[in-house]
Amino acid sequence: MHSAFKFAFIAGLTFLVAAEVAYGQAQNYGTNDPGVQQRMQNQQQRIDQGINSGQLTPREAGRLEAEEARIRQDELRMKSDGNLTPAERQRLNRELDKSSSDIYRQKHDAQTANAGQGNAGGNINDPKIQQRMQNQEQRIQQGVNSGALTPKEAGKLEAREAKIRQDEARMKSDGKLTAKERKKLNKELDNASERIYKQKHDRQQVKTN
Fold first, then answer.
1. Is residue 108 pLDDT above 60, yes or no?
2. Distance CA 204, CA 199 (A)
3. How do residues 49-94 score in pLDDT, each as one tens digit?
4. Where are the domains of the chain?
């Protein structure tokens, strides 16, 4: 009798624990969604490829980057309560569907940029310039994620970065990057860096949580 009671008690306790876990799982959807993250990453790569190939003008790239920034900030707001519900995931995927279509259309329209398609050879590598470009890109992304940059601000900054990258590609297309060209690129990067700082520290902010 004692054993039967003990067995029933343990079985009942197990059921209650399982039910509580199931209820918690039903209420908490978590915030991780590899599918959404992968789509964002893929679309960023498509924009970068369009900039490097000249399929996207700096202005087009800026508009597309502004759209991507809005999606990232929407995602951060949705995740701020610790849950990303099925309805929110569906909304993010709809936004990504639209931006994907916009990327395709902009890359295949009549507007192109001369990004320099020559066969670059010789010693044209400049790690310092590449590092500066990477650092500035990271500063823009950090500003988007923190809300210090609005999507419109981020788009304008990304358009400026796209122009610098295309200027660099044109300069390298003859197989050389002269001291004068390096100086010009660094001056452009100086101006872009100053603009990033100003935009991140102005009064325009986005609430991401």
1. yes
2. 8
3. 999 999 999 999 999 999 999 999 999 999 999 989 999 999 999 9
4. 34-200
**Residue whose C-alpha is closest to residue 162's, from 136, 131, 197:** 136
Locate 11 and state its tokens.
């079985």
Total H helices, total E strands in the chain: 7, 0
Q: CA–CA separation, 106 vs 112, rounded Å?
A: 9
CA distance 120 to 129: 17
**pLDDT tens by residue, 140-149:** 999 999 999 9
H or E stretch covering 187: helix 179-200
Alpha-carbon radius of gyration of the chain: 24
190 to each of 47, 184, 197, how far by Cα in Å? 23, 10, 11
- Cα–Cα distance for residue pair 12/8, rounded to 1 Å: 6
Closest CA to 54 of 110, 102, 133: 110
Q: Which residue has the higher pLDDT, 11 or 34?
A: 34
Instruction: Name residues whose C-beta falls within 8 Å of residue 11's C-beta, 6 or more positions apart in sequence.
Output: none
